[in-house]
Design brief:
The protein contains three helices and 19 strands. With 303 residues, the chain is of the alpha+beta class. It folds into three domains: 32 residues; 181 residues, Jelly Rolls; 55 residues, no CATH class. The strands form two sheets. The chain has a 15-stranded mixed β-sheet that branches. About 9% of the residues have low confidence.
Length: 303
């Protein structure tokens, strides 16, 4: 075989190897590509991108790391990769940071106002992370369903974290930006409330409490019921329990101190009736009986 022929064959082998390497690279790249999009949107909202300014969002819109996303009214769900869904409350604003690939994804949500429900359907790999940061806390998960909400009352900043499946690791973020070394895990069916009043940042209670489902926003309960029904998940609350909270009927309890004076069953939107009997000669019920009943309600006697 001539030297020329050997050179041609060697060149062909090298070329074939290069082509194979390129094919493997692009195949792997496609497999590990991070999906980031508006899975669902209807209503009024904005996507703010540093390179383009404000953009009107639409369903299936591709998002970028660094986008600031706002929902004023309506519904909005963000899909990250194939198995992470972020549902925004109305009047919510977040900033999204996403890095890595589908195999080593790094997702960080800066919750600027409002609340988000998070459905992480598969346990994250050892090289992946999912975090939510608020002004006074940071939380991380491996795979779970949970709700995070921030609000202000009398100049005190609160963060509420409710866990419906799995565990969320929470840490305090102090006024100077430092993060507490102590990690407080919040398990299934539990919630914590973190406060910051300008001088102190701490947990409102000494340990996680049972979730007060009656005080959750209606859209969060609807999202949880959808996860149960469509995905077959077992959360800390059942579909039937959610339906009763949303639709009634509700129980109205009349309390005289620590003593249960009586109860009434009231349909959603109807009014409780003032009892014909009174627990004491003086005093009155601390309630406006023209108020429609929308949740289980306790009415107390005040002397």
């Amino acid at each position: 075989m001539s030297k020329k022929m050997i050179a041609i064959i060697a060149g062909a082998v090298v070329l074939a190897g290069a082509i194979a390497a390129v094919c493997v690279y692009f195949f792997t790249r496609e497999e590990s590509y991070r999906l980031l999009k508006l899975y669902e949107f209807e209503g009024v909202g904005t996507v703010t991108r540093e390179s383009k300014g404000d953009i009107t969002p639409y369903a299936n819109m591709v998002l970028e790391s660094g986008d600031k996303i706002s929902l004023e009214t309506g519904r909005m769900t963000i899909q990250a990769d194939e198995d992470k869904y972020i549902h925004l409350d109305e009047h919510t604003q977040i900033q999204l940071a996403a890095a890595g690939t589908g195999d080593d994804s790094k997702t960080t949500i800066e919750l600027l106002r409002g609340g988000v429900s998070n459905d992480i359907r598969n346990k994250l790999s050892a090289d992946s992370s999912y975090e939510i940061n608020t002004p006074n806390s940071t939380m991380s998960v491996r795979g779970t369903v949970f709700y995070a909400y921030i609000y202000v009352i009398d100049n005190v900043q609160y963060t509420r974290v409710c866990v419906f499946e799995g565990t969320v690791a929470t840490r305090l973020v102090f006024k100077d930006g430092t993060i507490s070394e102590k990690e407080v895990p919040v398990g299934k069916g539990k919630e914590v409330i973190i406060y910051e009043d300008g001088t102190t940042t701490d947990y409102l209670y000494g340990e996680p409490q049972d979730i007060d489902y009656d005080t959750l926003p209606e859209n969060v309960l609807v999202d949880m019921r959808t996860i149960i029904v469509k995905d077959g998940k077992t959360l800390s609350i059942t579909s039937a329990e959610i339906t009763r909270i949303l639709e009634g009927p509700y129980e109205v309890s009349f309390m005289n101190g620590d003593i249960l004076f009586g109860t009434q069953t009231v349909e959603k939107g109807e009014r409780a009736q003032e009892p014909s009997l009174r627990p004491a000669a003086t005093g009155d019920w601390d309630f406006v009986f023209s108020t429609p009943i929308e949740r289980d309600t306790t009415i107390e006697w005040q002397q």
